[in-house]
Amino acid sequence: MSTRRAFIVGASALAGSFLFSSLSGNAASEGQGGTLRTRVIPSSGEIIPVIGMGTSGSFEVRQGSAQYEALREVLRRFFAGGGTVIDTAPTYGNAEDNLGQLLEELGLRDRAFIATKLSGVTGRDEGLKQFNSTLRRLRTDKVELLQVHNLRDWKTQLALARALKEEGKVKYVGVTHYLESAQDELADVVEQTRPDFLQINYSVTQRGAEKRVFPLAKELGIAVLANRNFDDGALFRRVQGKSLPGWAAEVGITSWAQMFLKFALSEEAVTAVIPATGKPDRQSDNLKAGLGPLLTPSQRAELIALVG
Ligand SMILES: NC(=O)c1ccc[n+]([C@@H]2O[C@H](COP(=O)([O-])OP(=O)(O)OC[C@H]3O[C@@H](n4cnc5c(N)ncnc54)[C@H](OP(=O)(O)O)[C@@H]3O)[C@@H](O)[C@H]2O)c1
């Protein structure tokens, strides 16, 4: 660990010991009083809200369509509720174009923490060409996080992302995957390269990240974005017709979506979750998972038994 990072991790941990409960050791605030819970990016000490949003599928719609108009409200509610972190990729159809256009129209670019990717490209030239196109599509001159998507060509693409960070066009670098079967490889790459962020799948039914990825992130001081918190919607089908556990109200939970997001956030290695929706009411629902207490270990175990 570099001296600088060791200092920042140490400083964050110290702040943590003053401010946070044992359930949320890397929290900067605990989601009280209608304010979203926040957590710390270990490599810098910057604080981000724990509820982010994804754009795969949900933002891949035709401009001018009813779904596109709904996205305007999805974004408005997200920022009004305290959200900032938005995950996208150049290979999510026209999601980057729609996101860039809407953020510009709503005057929200400066408040957004945009996480995009080097995706499906091979070699430095292809990667750079794609990144420059991403900046145009997002209508910006820099992004907050540039991730190597699904570890494709990761040595070259991570080196490129780091060079762009040096140039000030990228604030943080990261690596991503979304499959249980790729978690060992992701852990190996993270161990070897120590990026600012990693992104991995994590949900009630997909808990492989608990084995190596999360302990490593905590040990090395790497921020974690957890994707597929609803297992791409499959979790809702599993609980169809089932009532929420009796203790849900005690932790401020009124929907299964909030339950699944709080499950992911109760793992302290997770810095933020990035659920995707194109529906304003669902966005409001998801944001509520950033308020109030998290789940206790026994509540988590009960949920796994109920849903897993
Ligand atoms: N390798 C990678 O880097 C990688 C891989 C996968 C995903 N990701 C990122 O992670 C994000 C999330 O993953 P994901 O989109 O695959 O799946 P997800 O967030 O687990 O699930 C999305 C599904 O849940 C539904 N949904 C959302 N909020 C809901 C709510 N409150 N109540 C009921 N249903 C709700 C959505 O439907 P509606 O849209 O109809 O509301 C959609 O069908 C992606 O958008 C992407 O940004 C990254």
Walkthrough of the structure:
- By secondary structure, the protein is α/β, with parallel strands linked by helices.
- It has a single domain, classed as NADP-dependent oxidoreductase domain (TIM Barrel, Alpha-Beta Barrel).
- The protein contains eleven helices and ten strands.
- The longest helix is centred in the N-terminal third of the chain and has 17 residues.
- The protein is globular, with a radius of gyration of 18 Å.
- The site of NADP nicotinamide-adenine-dinucleotide phosphate has 30 residues, from helix 10.
The CATH class, by name, is Alpha Beta
User: Topology as H/E string?
Assistant: HEEEHEHEHEHEHEHEHHEHH
Give me the side-by-side strand order of the main sheet: 4-5-6-7-8-9-10
- How many structural units, i.e. domains? 1
Overall strand count: 10
Question: What is the approximate shape?
Answer: globular
Radius of gyration using CA atoms only: 18 Å
Gap from first CA to last CA: 37 Å
